Amino acid sequence: MSIAIVQFGGSNCDLDVLHVLKAVVDADANLVWYKDADLSDYDAVIIPGGFSYGDYLRSGAIASRTPIMDSVRKMAEDGKPILGICNGFQILTEAGLLEGALTTNRYPKFRCEWTYLKVENTDTPFTSNFRKGQIVRIPIAHKDGNYFIDDTRLANLEDNGQVVFRYVDENGNATEEANPNGSRNNIAGISNFQGNVVGLMPHPERASEEILGSADGLAMFKSMVEHIS
Amino acid sequence: MLYLAEVTVKLKAGMLDPEGTTIKRALEHLGYHPNSVRSAKEYLIELEAESADKAREQIDQMCQKLIANPIIHDYIIDLREIE
Questions:
Q1: Does A111 contact B at CB distance below 8 Å?
Q2: Burial A122-157 (b: 16+ CB within 10 A, else e)
């Protein structure tokens, strides 16, 4: 089992993800430059955070149209686990692998802070090691994290259990104050209908060791590695 | 024939536009009081095509595939022939 971490020009959380997978989880993972479009040897893919192509046009828009995304799409269709973190989430929505869009934060500033998330769905390859309803502490760092989707599709997401993480306060309530960016229904992360493609704005790789202030994000990587082992 | 398309991309009506809102607030600091400010982006695309219809068709595809995000954007194409 091997995990690909896709690097685009402007990715900057790639090495953090690699560190967690190799040094903390002890998994087999490799950095893959976006021009190396063949991912057929890999069992799973992580698209890390950053500012690919300077967020030109729209966050994630340029990266989502590069040839490596055809390989990612093929893996998604084959049911392999695909995770997009922050800019990776933006790239997956821009590529149409996840529904909706990430637009500018309601108050248009870059927010870099700890958030509490409620784990809403533990049936994905990335969340099986959490308890349903568990409250976890994982930081965000973004300006374009305001999750938008129309009313009908939002209702479908909720009904299908595709909402994976929601911004909450420390008591688990999805309040207006706990919503850092204006996302509809406090959505922080979603999956595709099948559940094998997951995207989230918060950074689990920045909360995977106690020395960083929280190790709550580690369960995502452990879940993933268990799933493909 | 050579054509120039001026493509305007803006957020759909009713969508929150934090950039527009921030600009409106700054204008108010300067003593102006507009009813609303909405932001938009413009792209100028020059291309060769057999006819205006063909040019427009191509630009429309470009908008749908990359330049606009149909989930959040509307776009307007203003096309003209140039020398």
A1: no
A2: bebbbbebbeeebbbbbbbbbbbbbbbbeeeebeeb
ipTM entry:
0.84
Per-residue pLDDT of A97-144, as tens digits, reads 999 999 999 988 899 999 999 999 999 999 999 999 999 999 999 999
Q: Is residue A40 packed enough to be buried (19+ CB in 10 Å), middle (13-18) or exposed (0-12)?
A: exposed
Residues of A assigned a catalytic role: 86, 203, 205
Say which CATH number the domain at A55 has: 3.40.50.880
For residue B62, pLDDT over 90 is answered with: yes
A106: nearest CB among B11, B18, B72: B18
- Class in CATH terms, B2-82: alpha beta
Range of the domain at A205: 3-228
A31–chain B Cβ distance below 8 A for any pair? no
